C-alpha cells in the first residue's frame, strides 16, 4: 500500500502529477547500466524561456534550463 | 574583349574624322531614346568611360535639357550599362543557393522528427479513448494554448494556428467568461501582440534549442498548469498529415471538476462510472492526475506535430522559392543578353555608316 500512502504526500508538497512522474522517470533512468544511462540522461534536456504577461506587457522572461548559460 | 575592340574602333573612327552632321544628329536622337527607355542607363561600366565620345567640349552645342542630362551622367556615358542586371543576377543566384540549402536542411531534419511524431501519437490516443475529445464543452475559464514555431520562412502554418486560436477565442468569449492565451513560439507571439496582447497570459520561447523530448515538454506543461487557472485547456497546433498537408487541430483538456460535471450529465464521459477504482484514491484524485498527465502528453504530441509541420512547410516553401529564383534568373539572363546584343548591333551600325559616309 506504499503508493496509496504516497499520493497525499507529494500532492500536499505542492507537486503536480507531472512533477511526480518526472521524478520517478528520472529515478528509473538512473537505474540503467552505464552506456545506456548517460545516453538516456543526455536525451532529456530541458531548455525554454517563460515570460508572464501583465496588462498586455511581457514581464522579464525566466529561462528554465538544466544546462548553465554559456 | 570583342566589345572593347569594337568600341575603340568606333571611337577612333569618330575622333579622327570630323563627324558628319547627320551622324551627330542620329547619335543624339539615339541617346535620347535610350534615356527614355532604359532605367539603368545611369550606371556605366568603366570600359566605356575611358573613351569619351561626348566630351565636355561638345556639351555647349547640346540643347539645355540635354546638357543637364549629360552632367548627371558619369563621364562619357554612351551605352546602356548591363552592370545593374549583372549584379541582380548575381544576387538572385546567391538567394537561390541559400533557399536550396535551407530546403535540404529541413528535409534531413524532417525525417527524424516525423518518426518521433508518429510514435508520440500513441500517447494521447488512450486518453481520447477513455475521456473522448470534448471541444464543444462550455466552461467559464478557457485557456487557449497556441503552438507555433520560433523561426519563420515556413509558409502559413503559424498564421493558421493563430487564426484558429482567434476563432476559438471568439467562440468561447462571452459575459462572465474568461479566455486567455498561452503562446508557444516567437511567431505566434508577434501576431498576437498586434491585436490581442491583453489576453496573453504566458509566452514561451526557445523551445527547440535541444531536440524536443518529453521531460522538457512536461516541465513546460507543469509550468503552465501552475500559472493559469483553467476549466478547459484548448491546445491549437498543426497536425502533420504529409509533407505538404497540415491540419490545424484543437485538443481539449478539461479540468477534473468539469470532467466530473460532464460525467454526471452523461454522454461519453458518463461511461467513466463503469470503471472500478483500485487503491485508496478517490475519483477526484484520479481525475486530477489524469487531467495533468493528459495535458503533458497532449502537449508533447502537439509540440512535435507542430515542429514536424514546420519543417515540412519550410521544405515546400524553400522549394518553391528556389524555383522562383530560377525563373527570375532565366528572365534576367534573357534581358542581359538582349541588351548586350543590341549595343553590339548599334556599334556596328555606327562603324558602317561612318565608313560609308567617308567613301560616299
From TrEMBL, chain A:
Mitochondrial membrane ATP synthase (F(1)F(0) ATP synthase or Complex V) produces ATP from ADP in the presence of a proton gradient across the membrane which is generated by electron transport complexes of the respiratory chain. F-type ATPases consist of two structural domains, F(1) - containing the extramembraneous catalytic core, and F(0) - containing the membrane proton channel, linked together by a central stalk and a peripheral stalk. During catalysis, ATP synthesis in the catalytic domain of F(1) is coupled via a rotary mechanism of the central stalk subunits to proton translocation. One of its GO terms (molecular function) is proton-transporting ATP synthase activity, rotational mechanism. GO terms for biological process: proton motive force-driven mitochondrial ATP synthesis. Pfam families: ATP-synt_Eps. F-type ATPases have 2 components, CF(1) - the catalytic core - and CF(0) - the membrane proton channel. CF(1) has five subunits: alpha(3), beta(3), gamma(1), delta(1), epsilon(1). CF(0) has three main subunits: a, b and c. Keywords: ATP synthesis, CF(1), Hydrogen ion transport, Ion transport, Membrane, Mitochondrion, Mitochondrion inner membrane, Transport. Belongs to the eukaryotic ATPase epsilon family. This is ATP synthase subunit epsilon, mitochondrial. The keyword DNA-binding does not apply. It is found in: Mitochondrion inner membrane. CDD domains: F1-ATPase_epsilon. GO terms for cellular component: mitochondrial inner membrane; proton-transporting ATP synthase complex.
From TrEMBL, chain B:
SUPFAM superfamilies: ATP synthase (F1-ATPase), gamma subunit (SSF52943). Residues 1-18 form the signal peptide. It is found in: Mitochondrion inner membrane. Keywords: ATP synthesis, CF(1), Hydrogen ion transport, Ion transport, Membrane, Mitochondrion, Mitochondrion inner membrane, Signal, Transit peptide, Transport. Belongs to the ATPase gamma chain family. Its main location: mitochondrion. This is ATP synthase subunit gamma, mitochondrial. PROSITE patterns: ATPASE_GAMMA. It comes from Stephania japonica. One of its GO terms (cellular component) is mitochondrial inner membrane. It comes from the Eukaryota. One of its GO terms (molecular function) is proton-transporting ATP synthase activity, rotational mechanism. Mitochondrial membrane ATP synthase (F(1)F(0) ATP synthase or Complex V) produces ATP from ADP in the presence of a proton gradient across the membrane which is generated by electron transport complexes of the respiratory chain. F-type ATPases consist of two structural domains, F(1) - containing the extramembraneous catalytic core, and F(0) - containing the membrane proton channel, linked together by a central stalk and a peripheral stalk. During catalysis, ATP synthesis in the catalytic domain of F(1) is coupled via a rotary mechanism of the central stalk subunits to proton translocation. InterPro entries: ATP_synth_F1_ATPase_gsu, ATP_synth_F1_gsu, ATP_synth_F1_gsu_CS. It is a peripheral membrane protein.
